[in-house]
Amino acid sequence: MKYYLIVGEASGDLHASNLMKALLSEDSKAEFRFYGGDLMRSVGGTLVKHYKEMAYMGFVPVLLHLGTILKNMKACKRDIMEWKPDVLILVDYPGFNLDIAKYIRKHSSIPIYYYISPKIWAWKEHRIKNIRRDVDELFSILPFEVEFYEGHHYPIHYVGNPCVDAVEAFKASEKGAETGEMFRQSLGLSAKPLIAVLAGSRRQEIKDNLRIMMKTAQQFADYQFVIAGVSTIEEDYYKKFIPKGMDVKLVFDQTYCLLQQSEAALVTSGTATLETALFDVPQVVCYYTVCGKLINALKRMILKVKYISLVNLIVNREIVTELIGDQMNTQRLESELRKILRGGKARSQLLADYAEMRERLGTPGASQRAAREIVAHLIG
Hints:
This protein is of the alpha/beta class. The protein has helices at about 10-25, 40-45, 60-65, 65-85, 95-105, 130-135, 145-150, 160-170, 180-185, 205-215, 235-240, 255-260, 270-280, 290-300, 310-315, 330-340, 345-360, 365-380; strands at about 1-5, 30-35, 45-50, 85-90, 110-115, 135-140, 155-160, 195-200, 225-230, 250, 260-270, 285, 320-325.
């Protein structure tokens, strides 16, 4: 069968590439064509456009590149119609993908499946109308989404979370077997306990959070702080927010290696909060924004959820501390970090709560389960 996939960022490329591998195991004659990235290209098929040519985040960048975005949408719609796939699989990226779904539904009978639901439960809940109208099947990776969609009379399939698969695969790999001593030697680290710093994947997140994280780190002389950098951001950008002479290590594309050896972590909200929990690393979730009091007030009015971290959303209560807006300052961050270090009063309970979160997520095999259900729906 012919599968057309669309992703819009690095995480989508990762999850879609794993889904493609699983689809090949279920359908040996699978053909792929996609808007995606290097990981998807390594599986096989035709890369029509790289997500890096489409990744515009925030109001101003989108406005400045509106012409390019509309051109990409038009080209994508035309390409799908000309290739005539057996199914269109959309992966997150709702601003683009829901528009594509609307067009394809109107102009063809191609089945439309969604893998990794748009986060309409957080905001823009009205998009459920578009999903109900244009999407045939939705395959979710977050357990609490089932109840949300059922409340809107739209049944979905929970297939498990691919982060569980990724972490388990890492632990079973050669890198996962690396000892703490080996990791330290490879990076020239001291013998001090490690604290991981995951400051986000976008420049604005790093700018807003890393400076406060580093000021806080200066109060922990007995620990070695290591920043998990992402390869799409240059090293000099990170260094702007590190005080001169401070003993902080910056490493790229070694987040899992770092988490496996860390005693605690400071994490900007996102998938990283879930990955950190799956490594059993106690964390403080950090999300500073300018005009913090105003942002907190707007959050209460606009967001439909109580929490911003996936960890808390999955268990439906605050098990990891979230410092948002004006709450994200050096005093609060220092206090909360001390609570989760070895000997801290909140550490043991947090680790116990992580176990509950893992149970709710379920067993590894999300990509395989999704692929199996996709093929079954197409055949039957």
